[in-house]
What we know:
Elements: E1 10-14, H1 22-32, E2 36-41, H2 44-49, E3 59-61, H3 69-79, E4 85-90, H4 109-130, E5 134-145, H5 158-176, E6 183-189, H6 203-213, H7 222-233, E7 243-247, H8 258-265
Helix pairs in contact: 1-7, 4-5
Amino acid sequence: MSFLGLEKKTFLVFGVANRRSVAWAVGKSLEDEGALVVYSVRSDARRKSLEALLSGRPVVVCDVEREGAVDRAAAEVAALGHPRLQGLVHSIAFANYSGGFQPFHETHRKDFLQAAAVSAFSLVEISRAFRPHLARDASVVTIGISSLLVTPDNYGYMGPIKAALDSSARFLAKSFSADSQVRFNVVGSGPLKTSASAGIPGYLESYLYAEKLTFRKRNLETQEVANAVLFLLSGRSSGINGATVTVDAGLGSNMFDKDVIRLAMRPER
């Protein structure tokens, strides 16, 4: 048995979009540990585009924006006949940045509510629907951001929505604790090079700036986030519940890096 003890256990991973997805890195790493992984994708079109990547693996379609879709997905996963889920990974987020950068006060109601439904409330809905199918000591992990205090202009309304996701995980941990030992935790990830991130206005500049603030002067890798998720899914993290584990290569602690200060104050040198 490996240190994490994930062999022959069943997990459900939401949010695979392509090879660069955090969800794919998590799912593949679980498989490497000997676990069985069921994947959930947003649409039939997405499932078709992932045929080569997910070949031979169980896949269900679940568009969390659609009424009843999560309940149908839960029934479909149950019908696969696998043992109770030992864990669930929520790696879903969406924001409409098609209009480019907008000041936060100009956020449109429909955009905010859509992003909140997909990126935050979906965790609540998924947890409720899959509750009968979770092992008593299952672990639920969602992907958040490394800091809820920073206010990046180009991230806009997703900052408050990620804060809602973070808070929802804690409230779910408390709610489920009444009659189970199911745990809920957040991996607070620093900037990553993913297809989803590419849709954020000005993301490349933010990504390169963040790299200069990490202690190691090298940005976070998707696999490093996946490694943290696997730990939280395993019994080795049994004492962690309702928490956010920050994975950012030191980004949040290095605001006054001397090289960054030099570039900001005396860029000509």
